[in-house]
């Protein structure tokens, strides 16, 4: 059963937003009007209860074209690992009030009305768009992992019509050079297969033996600085 608590009373809101330490690392998810998503690592500055949350604007060179979509009334998702709580994440959606240039480039968000506390060892699912390599029946494809949870993931494989008959087959997944560490290799079983316009979509359940590696990968993914394409 998923270990997730949505916090919406004022006292608990303040206490749980405060679990993110000033100066701590957070990620913000930004979505363009066309549906393109980017995830960027930055710094949590602090908050004033009922008023606002302050987030450091990510480096302009890393934001690229996404910078133009951070403006008043747009929404961003903020996630941060909770210090002292191994494998736990605090997350909330904030509406941009304004951006500041002085004393530094800062995003001012409305104070959230709901905060989610999630355990990385539960059914928490994170959007990833992570490049990977997959192998089925000794054939290999370059692919993308679209989301990730402790139990499984969703994968999009281009030009892989032969995988339409791969339901219930074993699959080997390799994530190459994530955050400067060695390749991560995972094994699973294909639970469902769907034909998309240009891809074959695979729903994968991980082997129980790989749960520790998946938990570590989830932790890396929460704070990984990536620009999604």
Structure description:
The protein has 229 residues and is mostly beta strands. The chain has helices spanning 10-17, 60-63, 211-223, and strands at 4-7, 25-31, 37-48, 52-56, 75-81, 88-100, 106-110, 115-119, 126-136, 139-148, 152-158, 170-175, 184-195, 199-206. The two termini are 32 Å apart.
Give me the secondary-structure topology.
Blueprint: E1 4-7, H1 10-17, E2 25-31, E3 37-48, E4 52-56, H2 60-63, E5 75-81, E6 88-100, E7 106-110, E8 115-119, E9 126-136, E10 139-148, E11 152-158, E12 170-175, E13 184-195, E14 199-206, H3 211-223
Antiparallel strand pairs: 1-8, 2-3, 2-5, 3-4, 4-7, 5-6, 6-7, 6-8, 9-10, 9-12, 10-11, 11-14, 12-13, 13-14
Task: Sum up the structure in keywords.
single chain, 229 residues, mainly beta, 6-stranded antiparallel β-barrel, 6-stranded antiparallel beta barrel, 14 strands, 11% helix, 49% strand, elongated, disordered N terminus, disordered C terminus
Low-confidence stretches: 1-7, 225-229
Helices and strands, in N-to-C order? EHEEEHEEEEEEEEEEH
What characteristic shape results from the CA principal axes? elongated
**What characterizes the major β-sheet?**
6 strands, antiparallel, barrel
Strand content: over 45%
Q: State the helix count.
A: 3
- The termini sit apart by 32 Å
Structural class of the secondary elements? mainly beta
Average pLDDT number? 84
Strand count: 14
Q: Looking across the biggest beta sheet, what order are the strands in?
A: 2-3-4-7-6-5
Helix content: 10-25%
The rounded Rg comes to 19 Å
């Amino acid at each position: 059963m998923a270990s997730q608590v949505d916090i919406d009373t004022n006292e608990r809101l303040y206490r749980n937003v405060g679990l993110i330490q000033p100066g701590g690392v957070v990620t913000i998810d930004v979505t363009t009007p066309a549906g393109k998503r980017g995830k960027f690592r930055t710094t949590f500055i602090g908050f004033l209860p009922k008023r606002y949350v302050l987030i450091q604007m990510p480096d302009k060179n890393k934001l690229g074209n996404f910078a133009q979509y951070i403006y008043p009334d747009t929404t961003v998702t903020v996630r941060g690992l909770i210090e002292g709580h191994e494998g736990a994440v605090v997350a909330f959606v904030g509406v941009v009030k304004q951006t500041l240039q002085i004393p530094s480039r800062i995003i001012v968000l409305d104070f959230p009305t709901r905060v989610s506390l999630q355990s990385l060892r539960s059914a928490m699912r994170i959007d990833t768009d992570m490049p990977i390599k997959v192998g089925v029946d000794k054939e290999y494809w370059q692919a993308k992992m679209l989301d990730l949870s402790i139990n499984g993931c969703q994968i999009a494989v281009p030009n892989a019509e032969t995988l339409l008959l791969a339901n219930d087959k074993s699959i080997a997944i390799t994530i190459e050079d994530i955050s400067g560490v060695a390749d991560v290799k995972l094994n699973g079983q294909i639970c469902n297969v769907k034909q998309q316009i240009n891809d074959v979509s695979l729903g994968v359940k991980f082997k129980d033996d790989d749960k520790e590696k998946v938990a570590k990968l989830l932790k890396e993914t929460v704070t990984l600085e990536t620009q999604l394409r």
